Amino acid sequence: MPQTYDTIVIGAGIAGCCTAFMLQKKGQKVLLVDRSATAATGGSGAAGAFVSPKIGKGSPLQTLTNEAFHFAKDFYLKHFPDHFHQTGVIRIPKDLEDADKFEIYEMHNDSKYHWVEKSELEDLGIYNAEKSFLFEEAGVCDAPEMCAGILEQVSFKQFDIKELEHNGTNWILLNAARLTLNAQNIVLSTGYQNDLFDMRYMGVKGTWGSRGDYSSDLDLKVSIHKSISVSANVHGIIKIGATHVKSKEACMTCDGEPLKGLFETASQMVDSSDFVLKETFCGMRAGSKDYFPLAGKVIDVPFMLQTYPAIVRGAKPPVKHMANLFICNGVGGRGFVFAPLMAEWLSEMIVENKEIDKRVDPDRLFLKWCRKL
Ligand SMILES: Cc1cc2nc3c(=O)[nH]c(=O)nc-3n(C[C@H](O)[C@H](O)[C@H](O)COP(=O)(O)OP(=O)(O)OC[C@H]3O[C@@H](n4cnc5c(N)ncnc54)[C@H](O)[C@@H]3O)c2cc1C
Q1: Exposure winner among 19, 32, 286, 370, fewest CB in 10 A?
Q2: In this predicted model, which residue has the larger pLDDT, 261 or 244?
């Protein structure tokens, strides 16, 4: 008889890795699976993996992001300090108009920061920049190494899930060879490929991006973000990256052009004269319809549509969830910021039966989606 896990987490990106880690810490027998043999082959491997606060005029998404930022940096420092570099992150206004807005943004900064004047930026080797914020506690993760580090702490199996069936007690996971795994609970952390069930209401979409790792002797001590991200020099490597292209395809034709554009932008920010491209990465990050993460239960969409046809005309029946099926996804352009807190909240829901924070509960998107059918 195959063993039955308490929870199988599908997808070994940063969301799945953190979820498996938190569940195991709470005493569960957990298995993390991915179609690849190693962690972080999806969007997580390509990430510049900045862990920094969100600036802005104080929106609910900013509040949540900053809550997640505080949690994430403490989590990485405590458990995986070798793969998180607290370099500080400088947020540079995009242009003069944006620079004016920073005065308003300031009152909504709730993590340690200070202003950095143009002249100080130049002393740090950063050019063409207006007065900026330096968030001292922010930093960057080594993205694949961070996921691999978490993976070392949990049981992992390479397994490409093609189908999931519920036998009334447990979930049976099947691959193409019809081999099976069993678990009481499933957590879906499959990134932009969110199609194992009908979860259209969550509106998960991929945004494509690329990153280049350059070797350099440039003494860049702080990471910077303007319209793109340029990391501090960590062990002789500076990472340049951005994700902006909405795409359905995992791999767009990558002829070096996107990276060329990023390199040109970076060259206006720092002295890139000795940069030598060592490695390129590209991938998709998965965002939800309203840009908030998705952590919680999954609604039984076929049941709801068949049982309550009036739902498409505005009826509000009670929702029915799939048995023991959960999701941790939609972490968007801030996967390394959101994943630890989403994983913590989801594991509290699964193990301690706590209610999930309404801001990230996927249920929030369902009725509105039905009315648009
Ligand atoms: C260029 C770039 C720069 C970025 N920069 C930052 C940044 O600075 N800071 C930040 O916080 N975030 C950044 N991000 C975003 C971040 O990378 C993503 O939010 C994060 O990686 C999403 O992680 P995930 O675990 O949800 O998905 P993924 O990393 O995509 O993982 C999903 C996993 O699920 C697996 N999978 C899917 N379906 C199946 C199946 N049926 N069976 C088995 N396995 C399956 C896939 O193989 C994959 O490994 C960046 C992203 C990119 C692309």
Answers
A1: 370
A2: 261
- Report how far ligand 1's centroid is from the alpha carbon of 324 (Å): 23
Fold of 84-140+207-282: D-Amino Acid Oxidase; Chain A, domain 2 (3.30.9)
How far is residue 121 CA from its own chain's centroid?
A: 29
**Residue to mutate, 31, 34, 284, ligand 1, most ligand atoms under 8 Å from C-beta:** 34
Atom of ligand 1 nearest to the CA of 17: 25
Do the Cβ atoms of 248 and 208 come closer than 8 Å?
no
Burial of 319 (0-12, 13-18, 19+ CB in 10 A): middle
- pLDDT class for 256, splitting at 50, 70, 90? low
Identify the H or E element spanning 295: strand 294-299
Say if ligand 1 is within 6 A of residue 47 CB: yes
CATH of domain 4-43+146-204+289-371: 3.50.50.60
Which pLDDT value is given to residue 257?
65
Could you tell me where in the chain the CATH 3.30.9.10 domains are found? 84-140+207-282
Model pLDDT for residues 272-291, shown as the tens digit of each residue: 999 999 998 888 999 999 99
Q: Does the beta carbon of 34 sit less than 6 angstroms from any atom of ligand 1?
A: yes
Considering only CA atoms, which residue is closest to atom 7 of ligand 1?
A: 49
pLDDT at residue number 68? 98
Q: Is 175 in the pocket of ligand 1 (CB under 6 A)?
A: no
**Ranges for all domains in the chain classified under CATH 3.50.50.60:** 4-43+146-204+289-371
Provide the percentage of residues in the chain whose pLDDT is more than 90.
90
Q: Cβ distance 336 to 146 under 8 Å?
A: yes
Mean pLDDT of the chain: 94
Q: Using a 6 Å cutoff on CB, does residue 307 contact ligand 1?
A: no
Higher pLDDT, 227 or 319: 319
Task: Indicate if ligand 1 lies below 6 Å from the C-beta of 293.
Answer: no
Best substitution site from 190, 239, 325 to test ligand 1's pocket, by max atoms within 8 Å of Cβ?
190
CA atoms of 355 and 363, how far apart (whole Å): 12
Find out whether the beta carbon of 331 lies less than 6 Å from any atom of ligand 1. yes
Cα(124) to ligand 1 centroid in Å equals 32
Structure tokens at 255: 């002829």
Percent of the chain having pLDDT more than 70? 96
